Every structure is written in C-alpha cells, then in structure tokens.
Amino acid sequence: xxxxxxxxxxxxxxxxxxxxxxxxxxxxxxxxxxxxxxxxxxxxxxxxxxxxxxxxxxxxxxxxxxxxxxxxxxxxxxxxxxxxxxxxxxxxxxxxxxxxxxxxxxxxxxxxxxxxxxxxxxxxxxxxxxxxxxxxxxxxxxxxxxxxxxxxxxxxxxxxxxxxxxxxxxxxxxxxxxxxxxxxxx
Length: 186
Prior knowledge:
By secondary structure, the protein is an alpha+beta fold. It has a single domain (16-164), classed as 3-Layer(aba) Sandwich (NADH Oxidase), CATH 3.40.109. The protein has seven helices and four strands; from the N terminus they run H-H-E-H-E-H-H-E-H-E-H. It has helices spanning 6-13, 27-38, 57-67, 93-103, 107-125, 138-145, 175-178; strands at residues 49-54, 83-89, 129-133, 152-160. The chain has a four-stranded antiparallel beta sheet, with helices on both faces. Helix 2 (27-38) runs antiparallel to helix 5. The protein is globular, with a radius of gyration of 18 Å. It starts with 5 loop residues before the first helix and ends in an 8-residue tail after the last helix.
C-alpha cells in the first residue's frame, strides 16, 4: 500500500480551474498564498518575483478587456475568478542575466515557477481553485498598469472557489520514463 504525504495529496488533487463560483475570497487567504510564494527559494536568493493582486471587479474587467483580447480571448474565463494575481519578474543582473549567458538557463523563470507553484498549492490547501495563465498580452498588461521596463509580466493566476470534484487521475508519463538512477536511460 502506497503511503501518501499531505503534500503529495495536495499535488494530486490540484487541478486547473476554469469555472469559479461567485464567492469572494478573503484577503487573509490571498495573503497566505502570497506568503507561501514569498518563501520560495531562488537562485542567489534574488527573489525575482513580484505580485500584483487584482481583486477590484471594475479594475479586473477593464484589465481583462486589454489583457485577454484578440488572440488572447480564449483566456477570458479568468475574469470569472474573484482574484487575479499578476506575477512579474524582476531579474537580477548577476544571478539572472549573466547566469543565463553562461548556463543558457533563465533562472528567474525557474524561480517564478517555484514561487507560483507554492502559491497554487497554498490555494489548494485553503480550498481554493487556481489556473496558471500564460496566454495574455504582456505588452498591453505592462501599459495598463504602467509597469516599468525593469519588470516583466510572466503569468497570471486566476484564484477563487470552485465546485468540489473527485480528483481524477492525471495523465502523466510513468515515473520509469522520466526518472532514472545512476545512469541516463532515455
């Protein structure tokens, strides 16, 4: 019999939500999610993430008309979420720009991914649903919020309550295809 840890249970139950209930999310829950994200590790402890929380309905609607228009219209479902969290990166010159040149890895984006995952798992723990969205207009988003060039809009997390569903099995490759011990077997 397989032993499931609490974290593994959260990971297995977490899913992308595209239908949110019309119920407000308390700021305390949003702050708990942001705190989990803030505590994520990062390359050289640069902490390149910044979070802009959009929970005012009128502002969210105006933002959605800009960020989710044209080729991005398929992500308009996010406007039904009570909260949108815009994740910005603020890369550090040494850790991120020089590191990317040498290693050819955008470490700040890895760091953003870790912080974002902390955020969505904290939301799952509190009974909230999330959807990580990368399909939006970063250029129009930057202009809408007057975001300086030093910051880059990377993702949006839609957050809110959703209908409870039985977790379904995730379609993932078997572990034996993606992990090996002591030698490459791909």
